[in-house]
Amino acid sequence: MFITMTTPALTPFHQKIFPHAKSTKRDLFSAFSFLKFRIPHFAFPNQIPPFRPLRPLHEQSAFTLIELLAVITIIGILAGLTLGAAGAVRRHGATSTAKAEVAALQAACDRYFADYNSYPTTNSMPNPSSDYSPSVSTYTSAGQVLFTNLVGSVNLRTAPTTKRYFEPKPAMVYTNVNPNYFVDPWGSAYGYNSDGTNAPLIWSTAGQTTGGANTNKWITSWPKM
Fold first, then answer.
1. Could you read off the pLDDT of 172-220 as tens digits, one per residue?
2. 68: Cβ–Cβ under 8 A, 6 or more apart, which residues?
3. Which of 4, 33, 107, 203 would bridge with 191, disulfide CB 3.0–4.6 Å?
4. For residue 147, what are the contacts with CB-CB under 8 A and spacing of at least 6?
């Protein structure tokens, strides 16, 4: 008679420590399916996007012609608004600068009058009622007389030989001819008119260079009606 001794089967080591490891492959697949919708798409670069039978795969990320035209139209409108606003800001800045320069020239003429009892006088004076364009020679010649009397020299780079009543910024002076003359923010000569006794008329045509311009847009030293 033989006695057979059987040794009971031992539970695998990993199942003793991790009882939940008995889960089947199907359970693992289900758990992964649960997690994959919570992981960002870029974590699976090789994952194939979901299939949509009604749209071809190569057309799913493309833009239509109507969408492109709509975007281009919106960009054009925004660009136009931006450029228009920038132009308005520049015009406003130039107008403010011209007003300040006209007032400064008027004050310099008053200081000159306090010393000489006379304003800078020129025989060739532009007439605001008829000389609309600052390109005429009367603007240049009158401006040169005003410059030499207020600055005390024929050009900005030369040391003054008489008292200097006005210290202009370089951008305000046209230096390509001697004597120099004052120019407004639009690059045109300032108008100057004085008989020496009465208060001078000083003005900027505010960028208008054609005959018959609207003088209501000018920047002047006299009050507008």
1. 999 999 999 999 999 999 999 999 999 999 999 998 877 666 788 899 9
2. none
3. 203
4. 173, 179, 180, 181, 182
